[in-house]
Amino acid sequence: MTDAHDAGYPPAPPRPPQDAWAVPHTPLGQSLPLAPLSAGDGTALGTPPPPPAPPAPPAPPAYPVYGAAPSAPQPRSYQPPSYQPTAFGQPGAAPTAGYPSAPASAYPVSHGGYPVPGQTAYGYMAPSGRKFWGLLFLFYIPYLGWLVTIIVGLVQRSSAKQSPMPIVRENARWALNWALSYVIYQAVILALIVAIVAASPDGEPPAVIAIPGTLFFGVGVYCLVTMIRGCVISDRVVHRPALALPLFRG
């Protein structure tokens, strides 16, 4: 058998003395002291946990608490805005500090004595003469419609004379002029029809009666068209019917 040294292996390390392998002797009934075990977070097992941290104080509420004492008011510094009076509806006026400036088109601007349509103040109705022409539809009340229309037109005319707006005064005047003119035209045509019938020798109306009959129907259609047109354009201009007699002036 070849020796390990002869086979080329390195020599074995020297063996320790016999006393280094000796087990320490402990008296009967005693145990060896053990090293404390760690819990992994740096604390030894069996160590009582530290007391919990006190809770953080609650944040103050953003709204007042019912029953809580009111907080002292904070002093505020108030700077009044500088107000510069300007003309009513004057275009190009410098805006006042602290107040929103309204556009120049938001106020009534007169042009030739009549308000320009669409340029009215907020929540303000532009003056118009529509109601005077709309009241002429009272003509279609049976039997006494013409009388009711004339009475209402006279009342409205007297109240409109106090208006500072020319568009109101003039439309009321021409509406009454047309109402009276329409009654006069129809009364004359009816009187002409009655006269033609009464002048016929045998009581048979002649063919010429068709002329006043056509006029009666034509004037009625013209009256309807005039009232509708007056209700449409009298908020911008004064409506003057071509067949209206100028019975009331100024």
Automatic annotation (TrEMBL):
Q: Which Pfam families match?
A: MamF_MmsF
Name the major location: membrane
Query: Which InterPro entries does the record match to this protein?
Result: MamF_MmsF
Taxonomically, the superkingdom here is Bacteria
Q: Where are the transmembrane segments?
A: 132-155, 176-201, 207-228
The annotated region (Disordered) lies at: 1-96
Q: Where is the composition biased (Pro residues)?
A: 47-63
* Provenance organism: Microbacterium hydrocarbonoxydans
The annotated regions of Low complexity compositional bias extend over 64-96
Give the protein's recorded name: DUF4870 domain-containing protein
Q: Which UniProt keywords apply?
A: Membrane, Transmembrane, Transmembrane helix
**Bilayer disposition of the protein:** Multi-pass membrane protein
Q: Where in the cell is it found?
A: Membrane
